[in-house]
Each structure stands twice: as C-alpha cells, then as structure tokens.
Amino acid sequence: MRNEIVIKTQNLSKHFGSFAAVDQISFEVYKGEIFGFLGANGAGKTTAMRMLCGLSLPTSGQASIAGFDIYRQTESIKKHIGYMSQKFSLYEDLTVIENIRFFGGIYGLAPEVIKSKTESLVERLGMSQVKMQLVKSLPLGWKQKLAFSVAILHQPQIVFLDEPTGGVDPITRRQFWDLIYQAADEGITVFVTTHYMDEAEYCHRVSMMVDGQIKALDTPAQLKKIYNEDSMDEVFYRLARGAKRQAD
Amino acid sequence: MKQFLSFVKKEFYHVFRDKKTLLLLFGLPIVQIVLFGFALTNEIKNAEIAIFDLAHDPMSHQITERIKANSTFLVRQYLTHPGDIEQIFKSSNTKLVVVFPSELQTNWARGTQTQIQVIADASDPNTAQTLSSYINLIVMQYQSELTRRTNIPYQIVPEVRMIYNPELKGATNFVPGVMSLVLLLICMMMTSVSIVKEKESGTMEVLLVSPFNPFLVIISKTVPYLLISILNLIVILLLSVYLLGVDINGNVFLLMAESTLFIITALSMGLLISSVTESQQTAMLISLLGMLVPAILLTGFMFPIENMPIALQWISNIIPSKWYYIIVKSVMIKGLGFASIWKETLILMGMTLFLLALSLKKFKTHLE
C-alpha cells in the first residue's frame, strides 16, 4: 500500500500579494492512506487544500493529484476526487434521497448506478426510515455521515475532508472515523484537516503546518518519539507555539 | 446535458419547497396589478363636491345636471350660506365647491362677463388641479353648445383628442410599468439570492470541486426563474386584458419575445449582483435599493422623465427598465410593430450582453 503515490507536491506556494499563505510545501501521499493535515487557524491549510482540489491556482511550484497536473488537468482531477467542505455541504431543503441523486447526477453517474447506490447507501447508514425526510430535520452527526458518503459516492481516488467533524459529539466522531477507515480500506485515499488531536492519532501519517510551511511530517508514533512528548496535543503545541502569524 | 437537467430539477425543488418565496413569486404580480390598477390609479372617481347656487336659473341648473352626470363627481350637498363653504371643507371630505353667481343667465345673455367660481381643496394639489380642470371642461363644453346654437362666430374652442388611451385610463400606463417592475424584481433578486445562498451554505464550493461546469451551475440556477417569469408575464397580461380592460393592441408574440429579452437582462443583473456579493442580505439590499428603486423612479411610469433635471434624464438611459417600458408601451398600448422599437431592442440587447459578459468574467475571477 505504500508504493503508489496519489498526491505529490513540490515547492507548492500561494501568494496573496506579498503574503505567502502557503510557502513552498512538498509532500507525498500514498494510495489508501489516511493523511492528517494539521495546523493552527491561519496556517494555510485551507488554502493548500483548495489548490489541491483545483479550486484555486498555485502561484508557483508543482503538484499532481491522482496522476494529473494541477495546472493543466484540473477537469480530470475534479472527476477523481471527492470533497467535503468545512461548512455542511448538503442541501437542507432536499430529502436524503434527493441529495444523493443530485450529487450522483452532477458527477455524471448513470441513473441505474445512482439508483442502486442510493439504496445500498441508505441501508448502510441506517437511514431507511428517514430517506424521504428533508436533510434539515436530521441530527448533525447523521448529516455529516451522509455528506461524507455523498462525497465518495462516485468512488474517487482521493477524498478531501476540511474539518469534517466540527461541532460533533465524541461518539458521532468515532462513528465518522469508522466510515473513514472503511473508505481507506476500499482504497480511497483520505486527506483530512482537523483541530482534534485525538483524531490526529487515527491518521496513518500527519503533517504539521506552521506559517504556511510544513514543519513536521511523519506517523503519529514517530512524531511523538522525535519530540519526546506523550501526546499529539503536546507535539502540536510545541510546533505551533513558534508561529508568527496570529490565528484569524 | 443529463447533469444539467438534474441540476435544474434540484433548483425547482428549492423553489417549490420554499412556500413563502413561492407565494411571493406568484402573489406579487397579482397584488401589484390589482394595486396599481385600482388603488393607486390617478383617475378620480366619485369625488365629493358641493354646489352653492345663488342663481337658481335654468343655466345654473343645466350645468349642475351635467356635473352630476359625470362619474368623476358626486354632488353631496347644496349650500345656502357663504359661510358654509369653509365649513364644509373642514367638516367633510369635500374636494371642491362650485359657486354660481346670481343672475348667471341674465348676465350671460346680456353678453357681460360672467364667472363661475370653483373652490378646490388644494392640500392635494394634483387632485385639485384635475378636478377643477374637469369642471372647466364641462362648463366650456356647455358653453360651446350654447354658442353653436346662437351662432357666435368668434369663439375659439380647442378640440382635444386623447389618442391611444381615449378614456385616460391609468391602467394603460401602469400595466407596462408593473410588468417591468415584477419581472425585474423576480429575476434579479431571486437569482442573485439563490446563487449567494449556495455560497453562504458552502455548497457552491462543493459544486466547484465537482466536474460540473461552473458556468452551467449559474446558468441552470436561472432556468426556474426564467420559466416562472414567463408564467408571471402571461398572468399579468391576462389580468390586464380581462380585469383592467387594457387590451394588447400590438403583436402578442412580439411582446412576449421582447419580454423574454428583458427577463434575460434582469437575470444577468442578478448574476452580476451574485458574483460580487457574499451574503444574501447584501444581495437583497443591492437588488432592492441599488436596482429596484432607481428602476421605479427613473423608468418614467411614476414620474415623467421629461420633467427631470438633465443629469437624471441621462442616468435614466442606463436603466434597462426604461427601455423595456418604452417597448411595452409601444407594442401593447400603441400597437406598433418591430420597425418602431428596433432601437430600444438593440439597446436592451447590448445591455444584456454587457451584463452577462461582465458577470461571467467576475464569476470566473472569483474561482481564483
């Protein structure tokens, strides 16, 4: 599982005027890996992620996603990735089924495929009872699980999750991570940003971003060993303490 | 194409799930037509007036009869004392008092100067003006009939003909105005709000990450409003013909085609607003204050543009509603063909292309 590279960046940078939001980051992510992308607010995580998703163009540097170039092949990239934004990203005034069908539709899945996938997905999430209900009537945890499942409906190679578990209780968070492991087992690479350090422990490898640069990148166990700390919390604190940027 | 259709379907879900907005979408044109057609009309009916007749001769009676026969006036009281005049203005809803001097007919027959006094409540200057000129007209007509009979040759009587709208119906003026307002409001505000809503809720990001073409995203968001607007247009036209009695004198298809053009203009204004705003409130404020109010004031259907300062007259030229209003009036009321409105059509088309190009460009830079 460690051989196939699905994300590769080299000196990737994004400047806003003279401000380097992302400053020459280079890293690789392997197929089927759960890659934690950590950093304080304002460290440049979201900007970096937006470049990787093709939402914004880099100022300089190279990157390839699922084997496609980030400058010239954004359309191909979009077909092979899934994305779940920080804000809740389903339509509240559509039912569970309608949301699944809509996103299946815009990813160009055939109607038969959408139909069978909708059924199995609703079944798997235990949402058969509520499938005709509007999404706004569901509890937040359910919504987030649904949003994640919709994001990987088209079986992307990589799924990007931008702080997917914000505001969710610990039990639901645990269940959410079960879904993430399931996806990784199916060979989907998971690229996830988070503020919760217990979640960082769940990742195969994590990177720590400070002031637009990647200051550390390794397995959680290795990081703790290098910095001689007991928890990821402490590791993160030691690295982020040196930050010059104020969190926004 | 299949993606596009599933997107449009989703948009219709949004529209039909939001019952309040739906009510607004279909209720608004009906309310506006009824309001403007009946309540806010500038024709006056049944204005209460009083007669103070000091003459009591056949002439004063005949004139009184004519005033009573006119649907504009409702003669409520006959006064007997001069002091009553002021009293009646204060104590009732009387708009106007006609005073016939004594020996009216005798004086007239003698050829001396005769005067009828018209006292109007000018706290509402427009009404006072209109009412007194109606009285004037009635008296002049009466007089001209008399003089025709007695063959006095030196009277000049202007013969006024009101063409296109001989009954001076207010609705003829308001229907094109309401059409331009309603279409502008629905297309511009609803489109901009619905797009900005996606930005606010974060779904826009998800859509932009999807392989779905971003331009198709915004195009498909306009489709429901395009269809709803055309439906509204039909409702307005039906109401205007069957309820207000304002006929479509020109070609219906030409009118529909021109209206569709204006709908697209308004949609592109909505797109432009949505591409430069980030919140629904801002989008709504810009639509209402920045676009709708100028459209109401400077279109020409509330206040004549000819009476405005030159600077405002110039500004009115950049307001699409003004051109659409001219087009609707020409086609619907005057019954003119395309030959006489091609210039306005061209201006509207140019504006639409400009707005569309600008908003698509702005939308694209937003992705960066």
End-to-end Cα distance of chain B, whole Å, is 26 Å
Q: Name the average pLDDT of chain B.
A: 85
Total beta-strand segments of chain B: 4
Strand content of chain A: 25-35%
Individual helix count of chain B: 14
Number of domains of chain A: 1
**CATH homologous superfamily heading of chain A:** P-loop containing nucleotide triphosphate hydrolases
Contiguous helical run count of chain A: 9
Strand content of chain B: 5-15%
Secondary-structure element string of chain B: HHEHEHEHEHHHHHHHHH
Q: Please, how many domains of chain B? A: 2
Strand order of the largest sheet of chain A: 6-7-8-3-9-10
Can you describe what's shown?
The complex is a heterodimer of chains A (248) and B (368). Chain A has 248 residues and is α/β, with parallel strands linked by helices. Chain A has one domain (5-240): 3-Layer(aba) Sandwich (Rossmann fold). Helices cover 37% and strands 26% of the residues of chain A. Chain A contains nine helices and ten strands. Chain A has helices at 45-52, 74-80, 96-106, 111-124, 140-151, 170-185, 197-202, 220-227, 232-240; strands at 5-16, 19-30, 34-39, 60-65, 68-69, 81-84, 158-162, 189-193, 205-210, 213-218. In chain A, the strands form two sheets. In chain A, strands 6-7-8-3-9-10 form a six-stranded mixed beta sheet, sandwiched between helices. The radius of gyration of chain A is 18 Å and the shape is globular. The mean pLDDT of chain A is 88. Chain B is built from 14 helices and four strands. Chain B is elongated and about 95 Å long. Chain B folds into two domains: 2-40 and 169-367, no CATH class; 47-150, 3-Layer(aba) Sandwich (abc type-2 transporter like fold), CATH 3.40.1710.10. Chain B has helices at 2-17, 19-39, 58-69, 83-91, 104-110, 125-150, 170-201, 203-209, 214-242, 252-276, 280-298, 310-316, 320-333, 342-367; strands at residues 47-53, 73-79, 96-100, 117-120. The longest helix of chain B has 32 residues, at 170-201. Chain B has a four-stranded mixed beta sheet, with helices on both faces. The relative contact order of chain B is 0.11. Chain B is α/β, with parallel strands linked by helices and 368 residues long. In chain B, helix 3 (58-69) links the parallel strand 1 and strand 2. Chain B starts with a helix and ends with a helix. The A-B interface holds A 53-57, 75, 78-79, 81, 83-94, 98, 101-103, 105-108, 134, 151, 160 and B 2-3, 5-7, 9-10, 13-14, 17-18, 201-203, 205-212, 367-368.
